[in-house]
Amino acid sequence: MSGSRILTSHAGSLPRPAPLVDLYARRARGEEIDEAELANSAEAATHWVVEQQRQSGIDIPSDGEQVREAFFLYVQRRMKGFGGSWARPGGSELKNYPEFAEARRRSMAVSTAVSNFAPPMATGPIEYADQTANAEELRIFKDALSRHEGAFADAFMTAPSPGIVAMAMKNQYYDTFEEYLTAVTDALSIEYRAAIDAGFILQELCRNLGDGLIRRRFVSAQSLRCRQRI
């Protein structure tokens, strides 16, 4: 996309303002929050994070996932079929490096955050239920970009891979994992299509199980304007 220099981008998720993180964390704990305040804060944070990317010299920005409480957990609010919770095991780095595990435990004990380690499970048929939230996320990002016309070479939207959702959000409903993975892929494809139709690069997060399924069921490789973060 450039014949004169290497364009700069980044992984996708960017730090959220502390008041926004607090709202997400309180909601994740089951507390009642002002949903209008959350929506306004997330929109303001999106405009802020796009401006920070412009000032930093980023050529291909994202919305920093400001309207999502966590990079895959947000799907439970846009899809039907998830409920309950389970204790997701930690990665091998925690087992292999106990001193790191302890340091992480102490840090998490005093931090305000939404944990990815107590996610919901699939307890019913997985269906994409709320396209309004996804459309609003795209609208907010487009509006933020419009205020910096000519400043960016392109822009991208992130979306979790079917594999990370299916592995982290345990299957308690489908007879086989393959059936569950297929249902998750079909649901997520709605967001994939919406991002591309809106003119964004689609960045699939955490490439793993489901990549081949995406290409077979979603869109041909020739028309998939996609990159992957591993």
Q: What secondary-structure arrangement, pairings included, does this model have?
A:
Elements: H1 18-28, H2 35-56, E1 79-83, H3 92-96, H4 98-110, E2 121-128, H5 131-146, E3 156-160, H6 162-168, H7 177-197, E4 201-205, H8 211-217, E5 226-229
Helix pairs in contact: 1-2, 2-5, 5-7, 6-7
Describe the protein.
The protein has 230 residues and is of the alpha/beta class. The chain has one domain (18-85, 121-229): TIM Barrel (Alpha-Beta Barrel), CATH 3.20.20.210. Helix content is 44%, strand content 12%. The protein has eight helices and five strands, in the order ααβααβαβααβαβ. The strands form two sheets. It has a three-stranded parallel β-sheet with strand order 3-4-5. Strand 4, helix 8 (211-217) and strand 5 form a beta-alpha-beta unit. Helix 1 (18-28) crosses helix 2, helix 2 (35-56) runs parallel beside helix 5 (131-146) and helix 6 (162-168) crosses helix 7. The protein is globular. The two termini are 22 Å apart. The relative contact order is 0.15. Mean pLDDT is 90; it is low at 219-223.
